[in-house]
Design a protein that fits this description.
heterodimer; A: alpha+beta; Beta-Lactamase; 7 domains; five-stranded antiparallel sheet; B: about 210 residues; Rossmann fold; Arc Repressor Mutant, subunit A; 2 domains; 9 helices
């Protein structure tokens, strides 16, 4: 074949050369024709034929057309033509060869391209991935065949954007348009999914991925793939649906479910669990779910879970789990491990079931059972149950304890424990009860574990089922030994009492609750001289005067149940009435109902006689006491009034009957009550006689001073039985005392005023001083102001001084006023006696200056405060100082010295000495007497009053001769305890 | 403080009165130094300035009158007594002892001013006199014993001749001595020398002839 083609090609060269030769003859343009021939040969024959045609052409040209014609040798001129032809021919051949080669290559490449495109298309078809190209500016769109197929178009269709949008699922259309428009503007890459809806309604999920790049014109061009992902999406959707279903199932499961990873961490939890625990899944994941488990169960649960996670064995246990409100509930938890062969346990699934109610029910049942058991065992009785055939079934613990045997022994041989005397009877009754199904109610003796027979009472009740058959009988046995004994004792006692009643040397009888005669003892029968049967009522034997009183009292007692007590005269068998005292007490049963009256009548004839005598003597005494011109009283040992005589009662305005209700405290003057109470208390405590003055309110409301005296009255053993006392009205005396005291006070006042009068000059001086300062400063102030220029600052200072002067004047007046304060009561306060002395000396300064008296002081600054009345003490100091000054009036041969000293006297008092160097006094004690005076105008009361003041302060005032001359007056004052200066 | 500024000294034990009077005197323009007691006053150094002493009659321990007694011996300042309740005997005693005024409290402003001014004037005069005397005394001390002998004769107005014969010396000698005396005593005339001698208390010689 090949050979033929080659031959044809070479033949073509030959033919073309022949044709060229012929054409050359006609046309007379040999070179062009040969060139044409070479061209054709090269063009259609190839390289070989080309070369052949060149050769042939050269040969023919040389031989036929060049001169010498038909000769191969050529003239030199024509040689050039030949060579030119050859050269041109060669060039044509080469050119054509080159062109041909290029053509061959192109064809080869085209073939390869065709092949690879078919591969691509196949690949696209298989992988359901189409490709596309898109130039947004020109809106030129290229789709591969697969793309068209995916879009449901025929391969021949030329795609446009309209066709694309046509296919896009209506729901996705806007989205796709928006993506394409926005992306194409900025040249962003595409990667999105959408759906195609084909004509037949099929939905295809399409994933588009494209890359944008710029073409040579700078326009965006997208090259991308279109992937049909429908199968994947459909799978996803079904998977999701199934997962949702599963989750729904787990969540709606009426139990708590959760899964654990192999490291025991919570992985999944169903809704129920979340609702129960009140926590979110995240919270539960973050911590071990075991913390929800009750602390007591935690270890158990953790161990079980651990074991399951390690070995893969399931577990099943109960534990308590905390609810969101903090309440623990019982759960049954079952755990199953999911494992594979290679990696062991993958997961542990847990199912929890709420068994709280069941648990609680179980517990309460158990508790009830226990309680019941406890009740039965703690019944203070012996309990047993029996089968319908009379066999013992169950007994309680007390019964076993009582008999000291076991249940087995009791079942077989309980009759052996019965007292021999009771055994036959009991067994017979027992047999009958079993036969008839009747209730058994017997008393019998049973041997106790310690070998003692005790009386027991048994009550056996059969229990029937619905059909009326005996199912079981229940027996309760009670120990009645004590009751039995009591009954026996009672019977014996009654016999004894009757014997006693008859042998008592008193008249005894009993009556019914209604008051009818029941029993009369031997002695009474003898007293009345009647037989028991004949005595039915009392009245015939009573003295006619006593009948009504007696019957009234008796009726009252019978009606109310109060004990009966009466004194009456009863006619004895010999017809003489004798005084009897009848006492009756009711006997009551357990319900407090009166069963019987026991009565005792005793002969009190002798006592009655003595009483009469006593009454008479008492009446005498009463008369005496009431006639005493004073208040006579007695009280019980507790201090409450017992007897007040008539005078006393009259004073208080009450009657003797009101006395027991009297509260003696109400009539005592409120101010005196504490003192009286204290005295009375101490008397009663010490048991010694005593007295107290107090004010007591009279019936008309006036308080009068009374002196009470009390004396204890003791029995032979020395115990105080009561207090006797008298009270005397001392009001008049008291008033006299008060008048005296007032007089004295007024006298004291008078002396005080006299003293002040003597000091008038001094006082005037004291007031004058600050006033002088006021005047001077006033002038000064005016001068400062009227100076030129006015000296305001000085004037200001001066005005300030003026104010101080005024204040000083006011203080002096204040001090003076304290001297005029009218006080009768001693007002005690802590006093610095140095202050009092200094103040007095200050007020007397001009007096001493006038009289040329030198005052020296030695006041102890650390002196304790004295307790006293300031004004009164001032008065004393004034008086003593003035006395001293006046005593030196006649002295001219020596300095007139007044020396005042204060110091501690002893631990409890201070001492003040005032010494003068005067003429002295003859008898130091005499100066204190009233109306003793050495002064021409003196009252002679000064020192007397001073002494009374100091003594009222519990101090002492005395005088003694001075060391060299004159007199020294000293006084002491007790210091205030609890505080020092 | 110039030694010539008058000073008022005030002694009163009552603080308020003391301050008030001191203030009043200050407002009158006086320099005042006040004391609470006689002792305090005595402890105070004496001033060279013209002084007036205002003294309260009633003082503790040492009374005003006692203090006055003590001051008599010295060159005492004029004393004005003040008292809250002056009695006649006291005032008589005080005036007798040389007090220049006796005022009762409360002090009348005018009286006080007059009294103090009067006192200071007196004091100033006394001081001046004392100062002059001391100058004279100094001059006098410059005289020789012979000149001392001659001075009484000169101031007695005796002629040199008489003097010379009395002293047993020459008339010329007396004349020379007389000239020296005049020079030493810085007397410009015999009359002045006579006044000086009087102040010095030189007893004039009597004419024994």
């Amino acid at each position: 074949m090949k050979g033929t083609i080659t031959l044809r090609r070479y033949g073509l060269a030959v033919i073309s050369c022949v044709l060229a030769t012929m054409a050359a003859f006609f046309l007379d343009a040999p070179a062009s024709c040969f060139c044409f021939a070479i061209m054709v040969s090269s063009l259609y024959g190839g390289r070989g034929p080309g070369l052949l045609s060149i050769g042939l052409s050269g040969f023919i040209f040389d031989y036929l057309f060049l001169s010498p014609r038909f000769h191969l040798a050529a003239e030199s001129t024509t040689q050039l033509r030949l060579f030119a032809l050859l050269a041109i021919g060669l060039a044509i051949a080469i050119l054509i060869e080159a062109k041909r080669r290029v053509e061959d290559r192109r064809v080869q490449i085209a073939a390869e391209l065709q092949k690879s495109q078919s591969f691509l298309e196949e690949a696209q078809r298989i992988s359901h991935v189409g490709s596309f190209g898109w130039t947004p500016v020109t809106n030129k769109l290229y789709w591969s065949a697969e793309t068209l197929r995916i879009a449901g178009y025929d391969v021949s269709v030329i795609p446009t954007l309209e066709l694309l949008y046509d296919r896009v699922h209506p729901e996705d259309r806007d989205k796709v348009k928006e993506i394409l428009e926005t992306s194409s503007q900025i040249g962003a890459d595409l990667d999105f999914e959408h759906r195609f809806q084909l004509l037949d309604g099929t939905i295809r999920y399409i994933h588009v991925v494209a890359h944008a790049h710029r073409d040579e014109h700078g326009r965006f061009q997208y090259i991308g793939t279109v992937m049909d992902v429908s199968p994947i999406r459909q799978f996803d959707a079904s998977l999701r649906a199934s997962e949702f279903n599963f989750k729904l199932m787990v969540d709606s499961f009426p139990g708590q479910v959760f899964s654990l990873t192999p490291s025991a961490e919570v992985e999944h939890v169903n809704q129920e669990f979340l609702d129960y625990s009140g926590k979110t899944l995240e919270e539960l994941r973050g911590w071990n779910h075991n913390e929800l488990v009750h602390p007591d169960d935690r270890d158990l649960v953790a161990a079980a879970q651990l074991r399951t996670l390690e070995t893969g064995e399931p577990f099943d246990l109960d534990h308590r789990l905390c609810r969101d409100d903090g309440v623990y509930r019982w759960f049954n938890v079952r755990g199953i491990a999911l494992s594979d062969k290679n990696s062991g346990v993958l997961r542990c699934y847990n199912l929890l079931t709420d068994i709280d109610d069941r648990k609680k029910a179980e517990e309460s049942t158990r508790a009830r059972e226990n309680t019941f058991r406890l009740i039965v065992d703690s019944i203070p009785g012996l309990v047993c149950t029996n089968t319908p055939t009379g066999e013992l079934e169950i007994v309680n613990q007390p019964l076993l304890d009582y008999t000291g045997t076991t249940l087995e022994v009791l079942r077989t041989s309980w009759p052996a424990l019965l007292h021999p005397e009771d055994r036959d009877g009991i067994l017979e009754l027992w047999g009958e009860s079993v036969r008839t199904g009747g209730t058994l109610d017997v008393e019998f003796r049973l041997l106790r574990a310690d070998g003692v027979y005790r009386w027991l009472h048994a009550r056996v009740l059969p229990h029937y089922d619905v059909e009326g058959r005996i199912v079981r009988s229940y027996g309760l046995i009670t120990d009645i030994e004590d009751r039995k004994r009591a009954e026996r004792a009672l019977k014996e006692a009654e016999l004894r009492y009757r014997l006693v009643a008859n042998s008592i040397p008193g008249l005894i009888y009993t009556t019914t609750a209604a008051g009818e005669m029941q029993f009369v003892n031997q002695k009474m029968q003898e007293f009345l001289g009647e037989r028991l049967e004949a005595i039915t009522v009392w009245t015939p034997y009573l003295h006619p005067d006593d009948v009504s009183k007696f019957t009234d009292l008796w009726r009252h007692s019978v009606e109310t149940g109060d004990p009966f007590e009466a004194e009456c005269r009863v006619r004895r068998a010999d017809g003489i009435y004798r005084w009897l005292e009848v006492r009756g007490t009711p006997l009551r049963d357990a319900d407090r109902r009166i069963v019987r009256w026991y009565n005792l009548a005793s002969d009190i004839e002798a006592r009655k006689r003595i009483e009469e005598v006593l009454l008479e003597s008492e009446a005498n005494l009463h008369l005496t006491i009431n006639a005493i011109p004073g208040f006579v009283w007695s009280t019980r040992i507790d201090g409450e009034p017992e007897f007040y005589n008539q005078h006393y009662l009259d004073y208080l305005g009450i009657t003797a009957a009101e006395l027991p209700d009297l509260d003696w405290r109400t009539d005592v003057h409120p101010e005196d009550l504490p003192t009286l109470g204290a005295v009375w208390q101490s008397l009663r405590a010490s048991g010694s006689p005593g007295e107290c003055e107090t004010r007591l309110r009279r019936f008309d409301g006036e308080y009068r001073w009374l002196l009470f005296r009390a004396n204890p009255f003791r029995d032979a053993a020395g115990n105080i039985l009561r207090w006797y006392g008298i009270a005397i009205d001392i009001d008049d005396r008291k008033r006299a005392e008060e008048v005296l005291r007032n007089t004295q006070s007024r006298l004291s006042r008078a002396t005080q005023i006299a003293t002040i009068g003597e000091l008038a000059a001094s006082i005037a001086h004291e007031i004058n001083q600050p006033l002088a300062a006021v005047v001077s400063n006033g002038h000064a102030c005016l001068r400062w102001l009227s100076a030129d220029p006015p000296n305001i600052s000085k004037a200001y200072e001066t005005a300030e001084m003026l104010a101080l002067n005024g204040k000083a004047a006011s203080e002096v007046i204040q001090r003076l006023r304290s001297l005029f304060v009218r006080t009768t009561e001693i007002q005690r306060s802590a006093i610095d006696i140095n202050d009092v002395i200094s103040e007095a000396l200050r007020l007397m300064r001009s007096e001493t200056a006038k009289r040329n008296v030198l005052v020296k002081t030695d006041l102890d600054p650390a002196l304790s405060f004295a307790l006293g009345d300031r004004v009164q003490l001032q008065q004393v100091v004034f008086n003593l100082l003035l006395n001293g000054i006046e005593a030196m009036d006649s002295v001219s041969d020596r300095p007139r010295e007044l020396f005042v000293r204060s110091k501690e006297h002893d631990r409890r008092s201070i001492l003040v000495e005032i010494s003068d160097s005067g003429i002295g006094i003859e008898s130091p004690e005499k100066v204190f007497e009233a109306f003793f005076t050495t002064k021409p105008n003196g009252m002679g009361m000064g020192l007397t009053i001073c002494r009374s003041i100091i003594e009222a302060h519990n101090g002492r005032l005395w005088a003694m001769p001075g060391q060299h001359h004159g007199t020294t007056f000293c006084f002491t004052l007790p210091v205030q305890t609890g505080g020092t200066a | 403080m110039s030694t010539d500024t008058p000073v008022v000294l005030l002694v009163d034990d009552d603080m308020y009165v003391r301050e008030a009077v001191s203030n009043l005197l200050s407002s009158m323009g006086f320099q005042v130094t006040s004391f609470g007691s006689a002792e305090e006053f005595l402890d105070h150094p004496k001033s060279e300035a013209p002084t007036c002493l205002i003294l309260d009659l009633e003082l503790p321990n040492v009374s005003g009158l006692e203090l006055q007694q003590k001051l008599v011996s010295q060159v005492a300042p004029p004393i004005i007594f003040i008292t809250a309740h002056g009695d006649v005997p006291s005032s008589v005693r005080a005036m007798k002892a040389g007090a220049i005024e006796f005022l009762s409290k409360p002090l009348a402003e005018k009286e006080l001013l007059n009294a103090v001014e009067n006192g200071i004037a007196l004091s100033r005069k006394a001081r001046q006199a004392a100062a002059e005397l001391s100058i004279l005394k100094r001059r006098y001390s410059l005289l020789t014993p012979r000149e001392h002998q001659v001075l009484p004769f000169v101031v007695a107005g005796l002629a040199n001749k008489v003097t010379a014969s009395t002293l047993g010396t020459s008339e010329i000698t007396i004349g020379v001595l007389r000239g020296r005396i005049m020079r030493k005593m810085e007397a410009r005339s015999l009359a002045e020398l006579v006044r000086m001698s009087d102040k010095l208390g030189v007893v004039r010689a009597s004419d024994s002839t």
